[in-house]
Write a structure and sequence with these properties.
The chain is α+β, with helices and mostly antiparallel strands. The protein is built from 15 helices and 19 strands.
Length: about 525
């Protein structure tokens, strides 16, 4: 028995990186759920990547690399065949097979899934043999591999045993076993989690991949207070702060023992508006919906001084945006990123022309622990709107409550952020501004915006493989949506990370910490 234990100890030591370390970090918001298919929101998808693998992954430069699939091929333009990695086991020791892939991809397409956009156009998922899976598409998809980086693989047996064969319905506040438990094949295993308090991960000694860092235990503690997060870093209580407050950045630059790792994010911050109801649910206007009128949407846009917002509220940590996608995303152009000018007089004239010379009241829903300075942004917006006669009643709330609320379309005006993991603007266009339909069409279009001409362009993009035609169509679709003010863009986020000076990691455009590249010296 002692010989067996010794052998296990040697195997474990060989599997883990040298100089193993505990990594303690914090952010203003919690994980929200460990169900890898329930919610397409940064904290949830980041932790899903720690505990679960996908068929393909991104490397440091966001190039496709093998994950649970070691090879892939296309027998024809509508078929993708994946050869699966052998010898992989889930955290509970059960072997990974093609059945788990078929189950997981079909689960991710379920109505309650928050990530079904990543499987848009996938008609069927078939097990060819125990190590081969084939995806059949409705039409060719030039960005399928990038989409698949976000679809995590679960254990079919574990899911059935624990009655989580369908994703958690996050919008309806459903609680399932998968919300606080996880069983993937990923580099880290979930040891414990307590909502809004503490989550602990431990390294998976049997992970098939290569760890370039030395983190073997992860302790995550959400801290809502900016001052408390900063104090925890300065005292050494935590090693890493994902979202330091903008007002503390200059102080951190000059503080011994800490450093900043910073870079632009591929996330754009918007305002969304209910453009479906004949009468807004949360406004003083009765019998009409002001946001159905382009002039009103333009008025709100002209009322916002994005450059002062950048300077005063964001302390320079933003890029004022006219485009719906950030510069890293295919389809972006400098010309398309020009904003409508800040012009309160024009905003007032447009409102009067639309029949609202005295403005109106409306509730602005806003998260207070999700995006950089989200509540402060919303406070500034209420001030800008007040100058043109619109009284925006701020309803700021934690991310969990906020996302559940807007997912039920229970909103009239809301702040929202959108990243683009595929680096292709189709993901933004299809998710945010296409008319709500089946599958992924409009699945995050909480304002229920609809434009048939735009839908035609978006549907064309789903199958356009020619690079030049695709680029031209992306730009055309973005311009049409922006000219119609389907959403009101505010800025592209710039995200600094604050770390102890003995921590080395790689800044990511998705604003998600990659633990396998993190080292504590």
């Amino acid at each position: 028995m002692r010989a067996g234990l010794l052998a296990c100890g040697i195997a474990l030591a060989a599997a883990l990186p040298l100089q193993a370390k505990t990594f303690r970090w914090t952010a203003q918001g919690d994980v929200l759920t460990f169900d890898p298919h329930a919610l397409n929101v940064g904290p949830a998808t980041a932790f899903a990547a720690y505990t679960h693998d996908a068929l393909v992954h991104y490397d440091q430069g966001f190039n496709i690399e093998p994950g649970l699939a070691t090879q892939w091929s296309q027998p024809d333009a509508r078929t993708w065949r994946f050869k699966l990695r052998s010898g992989v086991r889930f955290h509970d020791g059960t072997p990974f097979t093609a059945d788990d892939v078929v189950f997981s991809l079909e689960r991710a397409q379920a109505p309650s899934s928050g990530i079904k956009a990543y499987l848009a156009g996938v008609e069927s998922i078939q097990r060819i043999d125990d190590s081969t899976v084939e995806l059949r598409l409705a039409a060719p998809n030039p960005v399928l591999l990038r989409q698949l980086t976000m679809v995590r693989i679960m254990s079919r047996a574990w899911a059935l045993k624990n009655k989580v064969d369908k994703p958690q319905n996050f919008a309806q506040r459903e609680e399932t076993f998968a919300v606080r438990n996880a069983n993937g094949t990923g580099p880290y295993m979930l040891k414990s989690t307590q909502a809004d308090a503490r989550t602990v991960l431990v390294a998976n000694p049997n992970w098939w991949g290569k760890m370039q860092g030395n983190v073997t235990e992860v302790v995550f503690q959400p801290i809502a207070s900016d001052a408390t997060r900063l104090a925890a870093l300065l005292s050494g209580e935590v090693d890493f702060v994902l979202d330091p407050a903008t007002q503390d950045i200059q102080k951190l630059r000059n503080t011994p023992g800490v450093k900043l790792i910073e870079g632009p994010e591929f996330r754009t911050i918007f305002l969304g508006m209910d453009q479906q109801r004949d009468e807004l649910a949360y406004a003083s206007v009765k019998g009409r919906n002001p946001f159905k009128d382009l002039r009103v949407r333009q008025a709100l846009y002209h009322a916002i001084d994005a450059f002062t917002l950048q300077r005063v509220v964001m302390r320079g940590l933003s890029q004022p945006a006219g485009a719906y996608v950030a510069p890293q995303v295919a389809g972006w152009t400098a010309e398309g990123d020009r904003r409508l000018p800040y012009d309160p007089a024009k905003a007032k004239a447009l409102l009067a022309e639309a029949g609202y010379p005295n403005g109106f009241e409306v509730t602005l829903d806003c998260p207070n622990n999700r995006y950089v300075n989200d509540e402060e942004i919303c406070k500034a917006l209420t001030s800008y709107f007040a100058r043109v006669g619109i009284t925006a009643r701020l309803n700021a709330q934690p991310a969990t409550t906020f996302f559940q609320k807007i997912a039920r379309n229970d909103t009239s005006l809301y702040l929202f952020g959108w990243g683009v993991p595929t680096f292709d603007a189709l993901y933004t266009l299809q998710s945010l501004v296409r008319t709500v339909g089946t599958g992924a069409d409009g699945n995050w279009n909480y304002g229920r915006y609809s434009n048939p001409a735009l839908d035609t362009l978006i549907d064309r993009l789903k199958t356009e493989a020619d690079p030049q035609r695709r680029t031209d169509t992306l730009r055309q679709a973005l311009k049409l949506a922006q000219d119609d003010v389907a959403l009101i863009p505010l800025h592209h986020q710039v995200t600094p990370w604050a770390v102890r000076d003995n921590v080395n990691t790689v800044h990511r455009a998705n604003n998600q910490l990659e633990l396998r590249y993190t080292r504590i010296d």
